[in-house]
Amino acid sequence: MHPLLGAALELHPQVALRPEPFGALAYHYDNRRLVFLNHADLVCVARDLAEHPSLAAALRAADIEPNRWPSFVAAFESLKDSEIVRER
User: Fold this and answer.
1) Of all residues in the chain, what percent carry a pLDDT higher than 70?
2) Which sign does the torsion angle of CA 67, 26, 5, 58 carry?
3) pTM of the shown model
4) pLDDT single digits (tens) 5-15
5) Right CATH number for 3-87 from 3.30.465.10, 3.90.1150.10, 3.30.230.70, 3.90.930.70?
6) Taking a C-beta distance cutoff of 8 angstroms, is the pair 28, 14 a contact?
């Protein structure tokens, strides 16, 4: 299991999500980064991260099939590097 799956994550408090037809735009007000979330499932999980004890729990709650989890881990690693999400 990837370590990020066990991490308690949340959207950074300085991040705003703006819904778009392709998913959402995430804008970080502190570092001024703009990141595209290119899938509605990714947006759903990102919004609900703080309500779950781990990324894996958030993926399960969103009914994301386990065979898709590696792509979500890669996406959330990138979002963490961009400071869009952070560990709680």
Assistant:
1) 100
2) negative
3) 0.92
4) 999 999 999 99
5) 3.90.930.70
6) yes
